[in-house]
């Protein structure tokens, strides 16, 4: 991607974040609205984008690329798992769980998918959808066990992964690509209209999160700086070096690196609250890492 296009994209993302923050400040985005819009993105607009991204002819090279991105994602999740196991050992339990989960599970699903689509087009969005499968498995197994070892139920984890709306969209997309069935034009146009709003809605929701920040959430401590370096710099760097070493396709490499560079996942706050961990610290982790990612993501875009 050329530099001008990258900075235009970054300018668009900043503008959408500013709109979300403004809507929160004037009261148009409240907690109820945010919940409804989050469900709208996860259950409607994002799945529509994923289905459309699979509209291409299936050949041997595409099948190989999808397999490669899947195994690259598995390797990255192994790296994240090892980092989470050996990092922050001397941190108190409440904060330790938050930091370790943040290393395991990024915001690649909510924030990364639209950015991958903007950067790399429909093929990038399709690769990103496959990339996220191992992370969703980790999220409901190893990720959940970080907060509660007893809470990681295999059957429940499998059900949540298999029935995730974005996974259902992947099944539909793969079926359409393999069978080469053509949807009626009005269906395609409807999916396109709905999917086209994903980036705007997701970025505005993240912007509303920024508008809720308190002064104490702006104070960085050493652990958050280390976490941000690991999450936003080291993990994507390992991804880039590994992909380049094995000569992996540039688009596949780009998608893997960009998604590996995503900040801590918003589910960190939800699980911290559910299992009695440090919820305010979890919110701070998500906000700080997301803010810093607005610098790191364009950097990785330029490197790619």
Fold and architecture overview:
By secondary structure, the protein is mainly alpha-helical. The chain has one domain (3-303): Up-down Bundle (Na+/H+ antiporter like fold). It is built from 14 helices and no strands. The protein is globular, with a radius of gyration of 19 Å. It starts with a helix and ends with a helix. The mean pLDDT is 85.
Task: Give keywords.
single chain; 304 residues; mainly alpha; Na+/H+ antiporter like fold; 14 helices; globular
Show unreliable segments.
Answer: none
CATH architecture: Up-down Bundle
Helix/strand/pairing class, anyone? mainly alpha
| CATH topology (fold) name | Na+/H+ antiporter like fold
How many discrete structural domains?
A: 1
Q: What string, H for helix and E for strand, traces the elements in order? A: HHHHHHHHHHHHHH
Q: Which percent range fits the helix content?
A: over 70%
Give the overall form: globular
- The tally of beta strands, per DSSP, is 0
Compute the CA-based radius of gyration: 19 Å
Give the distance, in angstroms, between the N- and C-terminal Cα atoms.
8 Å
**Major sheet:** none
Helix segment tally: 14
Mean pLDDT across residues: 85
**What is the highest CATH level, the class?**
Mainly Alpha
- What is the quaternary state of this protein? single chain
As a percent range, the share of strand residues is: under 5%
Q: Could you provide a short overview of the structure?
A:
The protein is mainly α and 304 residues long. It is built from 14 helices and no strands.
Topology:
Blueprint: H1 3-25, H2 31-53, H3 60-86, H4 93-104, H5 108-139, H6 142-147, H7 154-162, H8 165-179, H9 185-195, H10 198-211, H11 222-245, H12 250-260, H13 267-274, H14 279-303
């Amino acid at each position: 991607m050329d530099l001008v296009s990258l900075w235009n994209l970054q300018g668009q993302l900043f503008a959408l974040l500013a709109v979300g923050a403004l809507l929160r400040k004037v009261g148009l985005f409240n907690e109820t609205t945010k919940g409804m819009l989050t469900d709208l993105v996860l259950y409607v607009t994002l799945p529509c984008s994923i289905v459309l991204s699979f509209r291409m002819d299936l050949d041997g090279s595409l099948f190989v690329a999808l397999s490669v991105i899947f195994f690259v994602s598995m390797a990255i999740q192994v790296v994240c798992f090892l980092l989470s196991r050996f990092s922050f050992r001397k941190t108190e339990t409440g904060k330790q769980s938050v930091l370790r989960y943040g290393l395991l599970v990024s915001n690649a699903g909510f924030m990364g998918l639209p950015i991958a689509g903007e950067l790399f087009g429909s093929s990038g969005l399709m690769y990103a959808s496959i990339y996220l499968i191992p992370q969703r498995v980790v999220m409901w197994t190893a990720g959940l066990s970080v907060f509660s070892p007893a809470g990681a139920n295999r059957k429940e984890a499998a059900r949540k992964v298999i029935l995730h709306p974005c996974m259902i969209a992947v099944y539909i997309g793969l079926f359409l690509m393999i069978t080469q069935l053509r949807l009626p034009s009005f269906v395609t146009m409807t999916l396109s209209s709905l999917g086209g709003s994903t980036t705007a809605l997701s970025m505005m929701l993240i912007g509303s999160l920024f508008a809720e920040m308190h002064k104490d959430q702006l104070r960085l401590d050493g652990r958050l700086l280390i976490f941000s370096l690991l999450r936003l710099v080291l993990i994507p760097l390992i991804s880039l070096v590994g992909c380049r070493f094995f000569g992996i396709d540039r688009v596949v490499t780009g998608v893997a690196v960009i998604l590996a560079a995503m900040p801590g996942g918003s589910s960190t706050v939800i699980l911290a609250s559910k299992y009695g961990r440090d919820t305010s610290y979890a919110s701070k982790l998500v906000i700080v890492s997301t803010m810093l990612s607005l610098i790191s993501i364009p950097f990785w875009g330029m490197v790619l």
